[in-house]
Amino acid sequence: MNITERFLNYVSFDTQSDDYSDTVPSTAKQMVFAEYLKKELISEGLRDVELDDKGYLYATLPGNTEKNVPTIGFIAHMDTSPDASGANVKPRIINNYDGKDIVLSSGLVTSPSVFPELKAHVGEDLIVTDGTTLLGADDKAGIAEIVQAMVYLKQHPEIKHGDIRVAFNPDEEIGRGAHHFDVEKFAAKFAYTMDGSEVGEIEYENFNAAYARITINGCSVHPGYAKGKMKNAGRIATELVRLLPQDETPETTDGYQGFYHLTNINGNCEQANLSLIIRDHDKDKFESRKATIQRVTLYINDKYGEGTATLEMNDQYYNMREKIEPIMHVIEIAEKAIKDAGMAPKIKAIRGGTDGAQLSFMGLPCPNIFAGGVNFHGPHEFCPVQSLEKAMMTIVNICAITESTLVK
Q1: Is 306 assigned a catalytic role?
Q2: Is 172 annotated in the active site?
Q3: Which of 157, 203, 207, 314 could form a Cys-Cys staple with 279, CB 3.0–4.6 A?
Q4: pTM for the full model?
Q5: DSSP secondary-structure letter at 327?
């Protein structure tokens, strides 16, 4: 099985996570995929294959060197985003992409005029959706690359490496991917998440992140007799959103600029619910953003009465930079591995987060490497076959470089 076949097989599994679920994993269908992967890893000859009851899958490719080198790891997440359906994904391959508009089966058009990222992939073979679902390269591309790299290393024993640990986890898309990750059991000196986008990317800076859920409690009265009595929760919810800085949203920011992002709003006159995420690379600005959420909630209560707005807000993860900078050889290894695979390394900050951010604060330094997918979380997502192959070889190269340069 080549890497493209493996990836296409993986995206046939619906593994969408659910932010409103209290179970682990958040959806049972993630466990279905985990069980499949467990069998596949065993069949491919990996050792110590273990799937726990929370959907965390661990395995080992034993080393083939006499050197005493550190154990390293590779990690990817099994779930896909709640933002778009991951059910009945129908991918197709556009061979030798010509740089023009891509008309998907649904009639939706993926155009380089809207998605200029396409221009970098002219001449490549693009895996696209049919326009009704996301593709799932985030992060089934990462899983396919890790598994294929382990197969490649087994088939090429001349490439020396130490013990390699791999792990696949649920619920990254809802910020819980590392919550039950057993760092002690994983037992790696350092690891890489294969969860980035464009080829050559290495990321060891990410947003500080929090989520906020605000409930607006209204009072429903017949509109003909509502004066002085009605408190319209739906309208108050929209008022609260307007109190936030309107030029600090995902669609108006880039680079190191943070934002407030309204991810969901629903309700009626009696009650409304809002979900937001708060992001910033700078820790002080991050704390200031959280304070703004608290302040606008208090304003609503002052204006409409105590208890009108209730706020639940919690941190999700922090910027891993402070954990990676003391061990920059981990980044240097990845840079060389990417160069050896024929690419130019691109060190950039993530406008998002990965499980590696949380894991780095749990004692497992874990920068992020490209997986090759583009335009995640929607029907315009695509993944070049060549990017899958380059990411797979980057993993192979990291294993070989570690064996040749690091000794315990």
Answers
A1: no
A2: yes
A3: 207
A4: 0.86
A5: G
